[in-house]
Each structure stands twice: as structure tokens, then as C-alpha cells.
Amino acid sequence: MSQVVEMYTDGACRGNPGPGGWGVLLRYDGVEKTLHGGEIMSTNNKMELTAVIRGLQALTKSCDVVITTDSKYVLTGITEWIENWKKRNWRTASKKPVLNVELWKELDGLVGGHTIEWVWVKGHSGHAENEIADQLANRGIDELD
Fold first, then answer.
1. Is 124 annotated as catalytic?
2. Is 134 noted as a catalytic residue in this protein?
3. For position 3, what pLDDT does the model report?
4. Which of 64, 117, 124, 143 is catalytic?
5. 3-class DSSP assignment, residue 126
6. Which of 38, 70, 77, 140 does the annotation list as catalytic?
7. What are the residues whose beta carbons fall under 8 Å from the beta carbon of 129, sequence distance 6 or more?
8. Which of 8, 54, 123, 130 shows a CA-CA span of 20 to 30 A to 28?
9. Tally of CB atoms within 10 A around 122
């Protein structure tokens, strides 16, 4: 059985919109790597998406990945909504343009290279790795100054 990459992601925003940050904890074969960053003006959903994108971009080859997120927006978007968005030329069921479409397109391109299992956890519920990802996302905001 091949090793699985564990990825824990989170996004944060102080104000929505406002300064935003994203964080990723990667774990593979007992080794951990953390990533974080921020944007002066963003939204919580953009930062949640960016965290997953940056985490997937850090992988150097096709992998089996378990991605754990506290964002139902990201989870539902990538596992349920995206196929219909693509069929409707990136429009929602109500014919409005999909929000954050460039990030969704980027994520869609990245997930195809991997076998991914998506896991949702409740945010701020004491899930150790989710708390680390949250701390990293907040560090991303703190380091903007």
C-alpha cells in the first residue's frame, strides 16, 4: 500500500472582506511540512480555497491525498457543485457567475493529478491538525504588516 499524504488546510479573514491568511499542514511518512501566506484584502472563502491550492501545488508527484478542511464551501464546491458549474460555463443554478471562479478553475486543474479523499471537520472543535492549520492561517495575516 502506498503512503498517503495527509493535508490539513484552513483559511482566515479579519473582516470579510479584510486581511486574509491561509495555512496548510502536510504530513507524509512521518514528516511534517507547514505552509502559510496572506493577502492584504481577501475573503474567508478565497483563503480556504487558496490553502488547498497551495497545499496541492507543494506536492511534487501524483499522490493519494486525504484533505481535511473545515470549509463546507470548499468541500461541497469541489465534490458536488463543480461539475454542474462547468456544464453551465461556470454559472450557478441561478445563472449567476460562480464566485472565485479563477480559484475554482485552478483547484479543478490540480485535483485531477491526484487521488483525493475529502474530509470535513468542524472548525475550532479541538481537532489538533485543524487547529495548527488555523494558527498558520492567522500567522499568514500577522505577517502581512
1. yes
2. yes
3. 79
4. 124
5. coil
6. 70
7. 6, 8, 25, 27, 68
8. 123
9. 10
